Amino acid sequence: INAEYMGSFFVRAMANNSKSSGTAKALQPFVCGGLFAMLASAVVHPVDLAKVRLQLLGQGTKLAHHQGFVSILGNMLVNEGPTSIYKGLSASLMRQAVYGTCRLGLHRHFSDLLEKRRTDGTPLPLSQKAAAGMFAGALAVCVGTPFDVALVRMQSDSMKPPAERRNYKHVFNALGRIARQEGVVTLWQGLAPNVLRGMSMNAGQMAAYDQAKQYVCRYRAENPKDPSMVSNLICAAVAGFSCAFFSLPFDMLKSRLQDMKKGGQYKGVVDCAKQIYMKEGILTFYRGFAAYYTRCAPHAMIILVSIEQINRLYTKTFLSA
Q1: How far is CA 182 from the centre of its chain?
Q2: b/e per residue, 89-119, with b = 16+ CB within 10 A?
């Protein structure tokens, strides 16, 4: 996928409406981050769907589950048809339009603010990179959780017996029905683990990417502001593993709580964690890690590699003198 070609349609359409370079500069991390967060989610959506289904298998038991994400997707293709692996795509795209735009844009905004406060010209320490990522991730989750609830439910719906299925038509149908039938508060079900997931994911992905880029570019004698494609891919792979490792346990809790019907088996995030640990074992928190990393690594690569290109195009279109 040529990111510059894909992104040019969007950024050039905005060029005629740009009033000032200051506004364009402020919007840059949000526009570029959100656009490619949506693209990345569309690409990895089938793997994300399989990950959610793995997390919801065998709740309350220690029975071994030998299914992997490849077999889950294969069974869905055979039994439900090729479109089944893209169930919940509308919710995924809307989630990234809100959550992805906020987390990537705010992280870059906070990082830039911290860099401006440094007078010695040295790169931000890892602790400040992580803090910027965690704060941005937490804020983004607060506005994006309703779309997350709709996404988990749409992805897992066909796992249930026909009488228990919700049969949402699209993301807005899901949001409306949840609000009417279960209350508006249900749209933020699983917010606590989702905030922790967002903080750990953003710190793991963005801070790890920035830190890896600092070391890789130094080793390869490149400018960190303009890294090569190879350096970008290496750093994005590191970032993908980091965010998967640190955020998966919270992602498990989030999926369980958001799929649960009102008055379900879990009383809250602590009770959910306790039941999983006591009834299913500690390793259950990392169930589906292969699928999660297979989702996180390409997702990070698409966003972080593409965003470098679209940032250059955006700068050339809006900010060049």
Answers
A1: 26
A2: bbbbbbbbbbbbbbbbbbbbbbbeeeeeeee
42-80 pLDDT, tens digit each: 989 999 999 999 998 877 666 555 678 899 999 999 999
**With pLDDT > 70 as the criterion, what percentage of the chain qualifies?**
90
Q: What's the gap between Cα 91 and its chain centre?
A: 12
Hey, what are 163's tokens? 């009488």
pLDDT-derived band at 18, boundaries 50, 70, 90: very low
**pLDDT of 165 higher than 80:** yes
pLDDT band at 8 (very low <50, low <70, confident <90, very high): low
